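Propose amino acids for all 479 sites.
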């Protein structure tokens, strides 16, 4: 039976969050009324001249350097020519033969592979086109997005599964968020991804015929589209058929891809140098100062979290993967001596709550301030509440924003510190469970655990299990 290897390369388009557009002073804000953010330059009126946005160049260089790319010393722009109603100039200002940067890499890991280097072929600057809005009777065009600054990040075909592609995207997004150069919102179109995918017999070095996948609107969409395409291509190859080189559209509702255009219809963009923007040299000093100002990125933060706080590799990976989560963790860890406990609550109950309620990590500080989490941890430490009750209190804190002490008081959740009451309940349990008591006396640990469990049940989780344990042992005169 022939087995196949999947080869995937990704093209990611990122919208950079500059104040103004790439080559004019129009605002680059999302969601404004149609055609309110336009001017003669981005509408491509005759006689207008583009001027490069300095912030755009510096954000783009930041990303390139964070991806470990070499930034070109010569910055040159080209025209990518095509006609489409969303493109008033009939060309897009882009970069062709001299991209801003090349030859970078990022590291990814999946459950199957501990670490893998994915090479970045090139990173180039490109302005966005406008947006068509199709209604029942007409097609409308909004040029607010025309001229918004984009960055295209092209990987080498180093990815071998949909899972690896998914991890690659997560890693890119995490880096972009650390750099604060994009809001990375796929729904708003700030982050877009096209994929090239082909299959080849295992062991063969020559690449198979590839298809290009478009129209994926989420990371999960990319993963599903790739998995669908792997199965589709593999089936054709196993039947001895050939793969057509074509662009295919992902249909999220049908969860399948279909032909958009074939190779014969592929565009010839007639690239040529943009005569209105003179090529210029970016000196090494500028590059070095951008490099020096880069924040600590996830791949540097992760080993530091292990060193500084004694976190496991897994925990440090989860915490460092998101800028907001890492900041939250470190803010809390500064004021509480047990970072491992903070990490456990964060990566466990708190992340679960955020995921199941579709709340962004960015919002966490607002609904649960780090000092509020710490006050809950302190209540566990001083035996006011048990770990079990703490879970209950935490979900209430997350849902209402109340602090731990208020909830404990309001719901009367503090642990039973009255030993007379506790002894009374233990005596009750011992009387009820005579058979189990015999087992405990004959040295069965499980039986002892059962008795502790019964006491916890009667106290609705408000007893301290360790104290209950020692009280029972005392009462039954066992060690
Ligand atoms: Zn404009």
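Proposal:
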């Amino acid at each position: 039976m022939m087995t196949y290897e999947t080869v995937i390369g990704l093209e990611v388009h990122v919208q950079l969050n500059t104040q103004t557009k790439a080559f004019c002073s129009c605002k680059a804000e999302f969601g404004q009324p149609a055609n309110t953010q336009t001017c003669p330059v981005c509408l491509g009126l005759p006689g207008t001249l583009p001027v490069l946005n300095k912030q755009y160049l510096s954000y783009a260089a930041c990303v390139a350097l964070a991806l470990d790319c070499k930034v070109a010393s010569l910055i040159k722009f080209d025209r990518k020519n095509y006609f489409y109603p969303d493109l008033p100039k009939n060309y897009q200002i882009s970069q062709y033969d001299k991209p801003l940067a090349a030859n970078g890499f990022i590291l990814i890991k999946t459950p199957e592979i501990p670490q893998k280097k994915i090479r970045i072929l090139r990173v180039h600057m490109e302005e966005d086109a406008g947006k068509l809005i199709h209604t029942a009777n007409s097609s409308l065009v909004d040029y607010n997005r025309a001229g918004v600054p984009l960055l295209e990040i092209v990987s080498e075909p180093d990815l071998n599964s949909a899972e690896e592609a998914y991890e690659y995207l997560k890693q890119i997004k995490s880096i972009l968020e650390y750099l604060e150069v994009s809001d990375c919102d796929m729904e708003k179109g700030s982050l877009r991804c096209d994929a090239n995918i082909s299959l080849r017999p295992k062991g063969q070095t020559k690449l198979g015929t590839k298809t290009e996948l478009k129209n994926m609107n989420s990371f999960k969409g990319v993963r599903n589209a790739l998995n669908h395409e792997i199965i589709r291509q593999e089936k054709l190859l196993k039947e001895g058929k050939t793969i057509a080189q074509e662009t295919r559209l992902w249909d999220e509702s049908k969860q399948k891809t279909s032909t958009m255009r074939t190779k014969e219809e592929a565009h010839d963009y007639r690239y040529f140098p943009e005569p209105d923007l003179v090529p210029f040299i970016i000196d090494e000093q500028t590059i070095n100062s951008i490099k020096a100002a880069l924040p600590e990125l996830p791949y540097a933060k992760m080993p530091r979290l292990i060193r500084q706080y004694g976190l496991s590799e897994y925990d440090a990976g989860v915490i460092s993967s998101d800028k907001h989560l890492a900041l939250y963790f470190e803010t809390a860890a500064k004021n509480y001596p047990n970072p491992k406990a903070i990490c456990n609550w964060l990566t466990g109950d708190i992340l679960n709550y955020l995921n199941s309620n579709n709340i962004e990590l960015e919002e966490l500080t607002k609904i649960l301030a780090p000092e509020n989490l710490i006050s809950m941890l302190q209540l566990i430490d001083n035996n006011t509440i048990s770990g079990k009750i703490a879970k209950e209190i935490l979900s209430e804190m997350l849902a209402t924003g109340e602090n731990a002490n208020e909830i404990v008081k309001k719901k009367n959740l503090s642990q039973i510190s009255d030993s007379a009451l506790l002894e009374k309940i233990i005596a009750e349990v011992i009387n009820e469970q005579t058979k189990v008591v015999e087992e405990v006396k004959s040295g069965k640990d499980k039986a002892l655990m059962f008795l502790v469990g019964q006491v916890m049940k009667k106290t609705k989780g408000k007893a301290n299990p360790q104290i209950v344990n020692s009280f029972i042992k005392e009462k039954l005169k066992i060690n």
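The radius of gyration is 30 Å. The mean pLDDT is 92.
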